[in-house]
Design goal:
By secondary structure, the protein is an alpha/beta fold. It is built from 15 helices and 12 strands. Helix 2 packs parallel to helix 5 and helix 5 packs across helix 6. The longest helix has 16 residues. The radius of gyration is 20 Å and the shape is globular.
Length: about 350
């Protein structure tokens, strides 16, 4: 972070602080937010975490969860009051204010000092202080590095360690993605020394399924998975009716796209879900194919090179048709063998 001395001075006095993160927070978004909140509270600050929407039940074990203010759960006025009175607003795990929906303009207009901590591409220029790096595997990793940089690691306890470890573990795909660096292992080791119970965190996140979710995954694999061998692509197309049939809750589709990417020979995977108000899309890839570029160019999205998201305002069938048509333009990138045949 540039101006680290000024940042240390800023947080050296107890202040009213708001921390917010992106819509439908995942383990990195919520873990980094709650981990940072606990740390700042240990420093004497008054801290509130505001999320734009709800999040999966398998994340509610994190310390501080019961104090989170969920903006779209009839907490718009309360959130506005908190932001208006905040002296500092931390923005975690998103690079653009559009990623927090209506909260974005409220944060933009706030008089508070704004701090961005993130690892996504193309950050928007709105923050007074920024800890940003695409080389980081997770925002939780950046939060711990920042804590160390200001000399606050002595305040990190078991609860903070487990929140941050959850973010790193999930954003590295349990340490199997290419973003698993030496620093990832170094930070994880320090968090374990601080008391993080890795087996407990893993079980709470990955082994807390409902019967409906297990049945939904089976249904999606058998009935909704499509494979386009010519493009080395596989995708799921999930309708709003499918979600209702299995009483789907927030988080039930988490990780589904990875099943498609795990198929031998697949280089590009997508999950296309009709959420009613819009069609939400998750993209994953292997190798050099940039799903971030694909999402930004065609579906108002973005993210990382090999993991990104997008949105479509057309209906599910039109979105699927557009997706398949777009693949024609990426044919040689997705199937290099075609070049040798020309």
């Amino acid at each position: 972070m540039q101006n680290i001395a000024a940042f240390k001075q800023l947080i050296g006095t107890p202040r009213d602080i708001v921390i917010t993160t992106h819509t439908k927070p995942d383990a990195d978004a919520l873990g980094s937010s709650l981990g940072l909140a606990l740390f700042l509270k240990h420093m004497g600050h008054r801290v509130t975490v505001i999320t734009p929407t709800d999040y999966p039940k398998f994340l509610t074990w994190m310390k501080g969860n019961d104090e989170v203010v969920i903006y779209n759960d009839n907490n718009e006025a309360k959130s506005q009051t908190l932001i208006d009175s905040a002296e500092i607003v931390f923005c975690l795990d998103f690079s653009s204010l559009s990623r927090i929906d209506d909260l974005g303009e409220r944060v933009r207009e706030a008089t508070a000092v704004k701090v961005l901590i993130d690892h996504h591409l193309a950050p928007e220029d709105f923050a007074d202080f920024m800890r940003w790096s695409t080389e980081a595997a997770a925002t939780a990793e950046l939060v711990y590095d920042l804590i160390e940089e200001i000399g606050g690691e002595y305040l990190v306890d078991k609860d903070i360690a487990e929140c941050l470890y959850a973010g790193i573990m999930t954003d590295t795909g349990c340490f199997k993605h290419p973003n698993t660096t030496e620093n990832v292992f170094a930070v994880s080791s320090k968090l374990i020394r601080k008391g993080a119970d890795t087996a407990k965190v893993s079980k709470l996140i990955y082994d807390s399924n409902t019967v409906d979710r297990i049945k939904f995954i089976g249904f999606a694999l058998s009935e909704r998975l499509q494979i386009l061998e010519e493009y080395n692509t596989a995708f799921f197309a999930i309708s709003e009716e499918d979600l209702k049939s299995f009483h789907s809750r927030t988080g039930d589709t988490e990780g589904l796209v990875n099943y498609a990417l795990s198929i031998e020979g697949i280089k590009f995977a997508a999950m296309i879900i009709d959420r009613g108000e819009a069609v939400k899309m998750s993209f994953r890839s292997i190798g050099e194919f940039s799903v971030n570029e694909f999402a930004r160019t065609h579906f108002q999205g973005g993210g990382h090179k090999n993991a990104a998201g997008g949105i479509s305002r057309e209906n599910l069938q039109l979105t699927i048709a557009k997706f398949e048509k777009l693949l024609v333009g990426y044919k040689e990138q997705l199937n290099p063998k075609l070049k040798t045949l020309v």
